[in-house]
Design goal:
The complex is a heterodimer. By secondary structure, chain A is mainly β. Chain A contains no helices and eleven strands. Chain A has strands spanning about 5, 10-15, 20-25, 30-35, 45-50, 55, 65-70, 75-80, 90-95, 105, 110-114. The radius of gyration of chain A is 13 Å and the shape is globular. The N and C termini of chain A lie far apart (about 35 Å). Chain B has strands at about 5, 10-15, 20-25, 30-40, 45-50, 55-60, 65-70, 75-80, 85-95, 100-105, 105-110. Chain B is an all-beta fold. In chain B, strands 2, 4, 5, 9, 10 and 11 form a six-stranded mixed beta sheet that branches. Chain B has no helices and eleven strands. The chains are: A mainly beta, B mainly beta. At the A-B interface, β4, β5, β9 and β10 of A face β5, β9 and β10 of B.
Chain lengths: ~110, ~110
Amino acid sequence: GAGVSQSPRYKVAKRGQDVALRCDPISGHVSLFWYQQALGQGPEFLTYFQNEAQLDKSGLPSDRFFAERPEGSVSTLKIQRTQQEDSAVYLCASSSTEREIEQFFGPGTRLTVL
Amino acid sequence: AQSVTQLGSHVSVSEGALVLLRCNYSSSVPPYLFWYVQYPNQGLQLLLKYTSAATLVKGINGFEAEFKKSETSFHLTKPSAHMSDAAEYFCAVSLSGNTPLVFGKGTRLSVIA
């Protein structure tokens, strides 16, 4: 595809459920980032991959959050035992090389935890 | 550590008036600076970026921003607002490629007919 895609676009979960959010980066892009955007706030960094290697996961808010990119393309962000405070838009971004500074963003997944 | 402060969570201008959205940054090393726009239910779109070349950066849709090191500022301007400019605007900073973006809290721009 022409841009970064994310699925699902909207997800409603009951508290305690596990969810999986998918990101398809632009084909050939080496770097992939996940951000969390709470209502009325700017995006905040969660984790980052270069190819299949997770180089930085310092932004993950708890051990309930887990991300993977096993083949260096598609990435999945998994949240276990969801809590209400996990409600947010989860944004994925990719960039073409390890030196490229411009990140291209997907439309996001809006997660609502009831 | 880097940080970004956007002054004014909401700015309202009349159609045709000057748009000025303020951004101040803090960084221990020369930063890369960005302005992104976000329309409702959409992702972030890059308006422009500063990469230590020219201090006055021109972007898409008639926007521009000036990097002022002495003021640690990177304010976004547009001479004449259009209704289609109504959106959320985010200023962001990064140290280099391969590093996460640090965003401000955003400024919502309203354009009044």
